[in-house]
Design brief:
By secondary structure, the protein is of the alpha+beta class. The protein has a single domain, classed as Jelly Rolls, CATH 2.60.120.620. Helices cover 19% and strands 21% of the residues. It is built from 7 helices and 11 strands. The strands form 3 sheets. Strands 1-9-6-11-5-4 form a 6-stranded antiparallel beta sheet. β2 and β3 form a beta hairpin. The N and C termini lie far apart (47 Å).
């Protein structure tokens, strides 16, 4: 409960030593392989977003790891993380029992001289008094003072306004940590990826988990291959939202939460 209290008070917690060195080596190998294969087909260049001026030419990015290998579900549904999410994302719901699901997932590695992100929040409802979305950042590499560690402003999830574009904050701190650690934070917390000054690798796997009524960033019903879906257990299918798909019509079902999971549409990753 101390972790929950700290999360509610400061807006974030860090849990160390959750991934073994052997697993980290495999995850990094997969990420580099995905980036080499898929990156040429992603949009690149400068784009103005709430995160600031995102320079995709100076960053390695891989999206939607959930549809590339079952191994990522060891992190998506990690047994040390889910009990924490069960508390912070069900709090205040009917009998504290409402489902939540993965809202987005991507891996990022800022390259040398990447300027980082401006402070921002991943919610459009600042200062709300309960957690709508919780982010989990898995440190696949060490997060250091000089390679782009995440910056946060403690307690800023309680502020009823957005961070000012392009401005730093006197209370911001760097979240450094050893590879294998996980940073969990309220998506309303002001945060941003730091600049990479030394060029060392800083892969991070970023996951968002949202309450049932928040629309996901991608349509998992349309981008999860059948071989992945068929290998998932019920808890993993719940995390992907397959028990919480809106019914087609009144003849299909009247319950919002289905008794059995919906089956995704046929999908295969592009064969580049």
């Amino acid at each position: 409960m101390d972790l929950i209290n700290k999360f509610n008070e400061d807006g974030y917690i860090v849990i160390p030593n959750l991934i073994s060195e052997h697993e980290i080596k495999n995850y990094k190998k997969m990420l580099e392989s995905y980036h080499k294969k898929y990156s040429p087909h992603y949009p690149h260049g400068f784009k103005k977003t709430s995160h600031g001026l995102n320079d995709k030419t100076n960053e390695k990015v891989v999206y939607n790891l959930h549809n590339k290998d079952l191994k990522w579900y060891d992190l998506i549904a990690h047994p040390k993380i889910l009990p924490i999410l069960d508390v912070i994302l069900k709090e205040g719901s009917y009998k504290n029992s409402e489902l939540y699901y993965m809202n987005n997932n991507s891996a990022r590695n800022p390259l040398l001289n990447n300027p980082g992100q401006q402070l921002h929040s991943d919610s459009r409802l600042p200062g709300i008094n309960y957690c709508l979305v919780a982010n989990v950042i898995w440190m696949i590499d060490d997060f250091t003072d000089t390679n782009g560690a995440t910056r946060v402003v403690p307690k800023s999830h309680k502020i009823r306004e957005f961070a000012k574009d392009g401005e730093s904050h006197k209370d911001e701190i760097l979240i450094t940590g050893k590879r294998g650690s996980a940073l969990i934070f309220n998506a309303n917390l002001w945060h941003g990826g730091g600049p990479n000054h030394d060029g060392t690798s800083r892969w991070a796997y970023a996951l968002g988990y949202a309450r049932w009524f928040i629309k996901p960033s991608f349509d998992y019903m349309r981008n999860t291959p059948s071989e992945i879906y068929n290998a998932l257990d019920d808890n993993q299918k719940k995390l992907m939202g397959f028990y919480n798909v809106p019914p087609k019509d009144e003849f299909t079902r009247l319950r919002r939460i289905s008794q059995i999971p919906e089956v995704p549409f046929d999908y295969n990753l592009p064969n580049f």
